[in-house]
Write a structure and sequence with these properties.
13 helices; 15 strands; four-stranded antiparallel β-sheet; globular; seven-stranded mixed β-sheet; 2 domains; 392 residues; Aspartate Aminotransferase, domain 1; alpha/beta
């Protein structure tokens, strides 16, 4: 039995995932498999680092230590063959704030910013919320795998005067891990039109065995001067509640402007406990990270087999990473509203509805598989019974 099979009762811990039913208007018996945090206990070294930090019992304004920076540098080099300099690292409370900061720092109201839907909802929100023009380069689903329409990519940039491109790498929710060839083609087009690339790589560690993630600026140093890479331990090590992220910017002018904008907006400080947890995770987390991804890969295969054998109308996009699955319910013939009602009230499952990732996601839903296998088994049994009751 794996340690990840342990069921941890998260109710009553102010968990958005498990305690948010009433606040968000969801049936109290709906099984929560939505927001992207895992239900696994964190590795012991992180808990120990937090315990040591809390024993000091003073929580004044923190600064990252030399050891903190070294832990990030070591992780990036070990895991991605990506040597980075200490001075490239800026700490802020989260990757989502980093998207807004980049838009504020490097574009003006009315400027065009491009995204690739269906994509994590804060991407579009950050663009429109700051009064920028939203430009879409929709991903294309081909034989169960999402691909980039590069002709549309370049045409949209040229035709709209795009100033900034928000890249999701690996891509949430479709699970694509971009290849060096795909990164190269995106980078060359963006360089040709002087487009700044902001790459959200918060899911960088969450790739399946045999798959490799390439940081956007790792394959070619020539891309460094027009790129910002956003990272955090929050998804990899289940530390989202500790509000700590590391924004990696090699170009000194970009880095200075980003840092000035963060100070202006008052979000240049991070969580003292988060610093301790992040350092411990990146220092000691290799074995744990490999183990959790091996378990999640087995969860993914369980869902794939179950759907193929019992619910063939429901298709699963082939992911290369993430603890999230992108499920295609369009064969059930429901509207987006009908699908949401069906999943919540008939199947008793609380998933992320596809339309929230853009109109391109209508008819889909995102399933969180970062949980014990028994939880997934319950979810699949509920879904099978609900679909069976439709008489399709």
């Amino acid at each position: 039995m794996s340690c990840f099979d342990k069921v941890v009762d998260r109710r009553g811990t102010c968990s958005a995932k498990w305690d948010g039913h009433e606040v968000l208007g969801v049936p109290c018996d709906a099984l929560p498999l939505w927001v992207a945090d895992m239900d696994f206990e964190i590795m012991p070294q992180v808990n120990e680092a937090i315990r040591r930090r809390t024993e000091h019992a003073v929580y004044g304004y923190p600064l990252p230590s030399a050891e903190y920076y070294a832990s990030i540098q070591g992780w990036m080099e070990r895991r991605f063959n990506w040597p980075i300099e200490k001075d490239w690292i800026l700490t802020i409370p989260g990757v989502v704030p980093a998207l807004s900061l980049a838009i504020q720092a490097f574009t003006r109201p009315g400027d065009a910013v491009m995204i690739q839907p269906p994509v994590y909802p804060p991407f579009a929100n950050a663009v429109t919320g700051h009064g920028r023009k939203l430009v879409k380069n929709p991903l294309v689903l081909v034989d169960g795998e999402y691909k980039i329409d590069f002709r549309d990519f370049e045409e949209k940039i040229a035709g709209n005067g795009v100033r900034l491109f928000l890249l999701c790498s690996p891509h949430n929710p479709v699970g694509r891990v971009w290849s060096p060839a795909e990164l190269k083609q995106m980078a060359e087009i963006c360089r040709a039109y002087d487009v700044l690339v902001v790459s959200d790589e918060i899911h960088q560690d969450l790739v399946y065995p045999g798959v490799r993630h390439y940081p956007f600026t790792q394959p070619d140093p020539a891309w460094w001067e027009r790129a910002i890479v956003c990272t955090a331990p929050s998804k990899s090590f289940n530390l989202a509640g500790l509000q700590t992220s590391n924004i990696i910017i090699a170009d000194p002018d970009l880095r200075q402007k980003f840092a000035e904008t963060a100070r202006c907006w008052g979000i240049s400080k991070v969580n003292a406990i988060g610093l301790a947890a992040c350092q411990a995770a990146y220092t000691h987390g290799d074995t744990w990270m490999d183990a959790v991804m091996a378990y999640i890969a087995e969860n993914k295969e369980y869902v794939r087999r179950f759907l193929a054998e019992n619910l063939p109308r429901i298709q699963m996009a082939r992911p290369q990473g993430l603890f999230l699955l992108w499920l295609d319910f369009r064969a059930l013939g429901m509207t987006a509203e009908e699908l949401e009602h069906f999943l919540l009230h008939k199947a008793g499952l609380w998933l992320n509805q596809g339309y929230t990732f853009g109109e391109e996601g209508a008819g889909f839903a995102r399933l969180n598989i970062g949980c014990p296998r028994s939880t997934l088994e319950t979810a699949m049994e509920r879904l099978q019974a609900a679909v069976g009751a439709l008489g399709l």
